[in-house]
C-alpha cells in the first residue's frame, strides 16, 4: 500500500480556500504558504502534491539571467 502524501492535507486546504474565494489566489496566500513549508520539509519527489512547486523552482533556476 503506498504511503499517504505528507502534504495532502495542505493541498486540500488550498482547494477548499480557492473554492470558497471564487478561485482568487490572492485570498489563499496563507494556505499556499503552508503547503510550501510542508514541501520544504520533505526531499524532492517524496510528495506528489509538491511536484508543481519543485518544477517551478527548477524553471526559476534555469531561467536565471547570467551575470557578466
From TrEMBL:
<feature type="disulfide bond">
    <location>
        <begin position="7"/>
        <end position="38"/>
    </location>
</feature>
<dbReference type="InterPro" id="IPR009069">
    <property type="entry name" value="Cys_alpha_HP_mot_SF"/>
</dbReference>
<feature type="disulfide bond">
    <location>
        <begin position="39"/>
        <end position="50"/>
    </location>
</feature>
<keyword id="KW-1015">Disulfide bond</keyword>
<dbReference type="Pfam" id="PF08991">
    <property type="entry name" value="CMC4"/>
</dbReference>
<dbReference type="InterPro" id="IPR027179">
    <property type="entry name" value="CMC4"/>
</dbReference>
<protein>
    <recommendedName>
        <fullName>Cx9C motif-containing protein 4</fullName>
    </recommendedName>
</protein>
<feature type="disulfide bond">
    <location>
        <begin position="17"/>
        <end position="28"/>
    </location>
</feature>
<comment type="similarity">
    <text>Belongs to the CMC4 family.</text>
</comment>
<dbReference type="GO" id="GO:0005758">
    <property type="term" value="C:mitochondrial intermembrane space"/>
</dbReference>
<keyword id="KW-0496">Mitochondrion</keyword>
Amino acid at each position: 500500500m503506498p504511503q499517504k502524501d505528507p502534504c495532502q492535507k495542505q493541498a486540500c486546504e488550498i482547494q477548499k480556500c480557492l473554492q470558497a474565494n471564487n478561485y482568487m489566489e490572492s485570498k489563499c496566500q496563507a494556505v499556499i504558504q503552508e503547503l510550501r513549508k510542508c514541501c520544504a520539509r520533505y526531499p524532492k519527489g517524496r510528495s506528489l502534491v509538491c511536484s508543481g512547486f519543485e518544477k517551478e523552482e527548477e524553471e526559476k533556476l534555469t531561467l536565471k539571467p547570467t551575470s557578466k
